[in-house]
Amino acid sequence: MSENGKKLLLGILIAVVFVVCIALVIVGQRKIGPSGLLMMLVGLAGLLVLLWLYNRQYK
């Protein structure tokens, strides 16, 4: 696989993870109780990991 193909695949994977994390936060907000809170925390942790990965390249 070429370098451009790898970058495209990685970009698609990151976009999918981003959408899943946002969905977890939104769905978790609608649920009341510990399960909703856990869903929101997992979504937030995923978003923070994506932000860390993005910022790591600009150190």
Average pLDDT confidence is 93
Number of helices: 2
What's the count of strands?
Answer: 0
Helix-and-strand structural type: mainly alpha
| Helix amount | over 70%
Unreliable segments of 5+ consecutive residues = none
From the N-terminal CA to the C-terminal CA, the straight-line distance is 28 Å
How would you sum up the major sheet? none
The gyration radius over C-alpha positions equals 14 Å
The coarse silhouette is: elongated
The fraction of residues assigned to DSSP E strands is under 5%
Order of SSEs: HH
Can you summarize this structure?
The protein is mostly helical and 59 residues long.
How would you characterize this protein structure?
- The protein contains two helices and no strands.
- It has 59 residues and is mainly alpha-helical.
- The chain is elongated and about 45 Å long.
- Helix 1 (3-30) runs antiparallel to helix 2 (34-56).
- The model has no long low-confidence stretch (mean pLDDT 93).
- The protein is 86% helix and 0% strand.
Which structural traits does this protein have?
59 residues, mainly alpha, 86% helix, elongated
Blueprint of the fold:
Elements: H1 3-30, H2 34-56
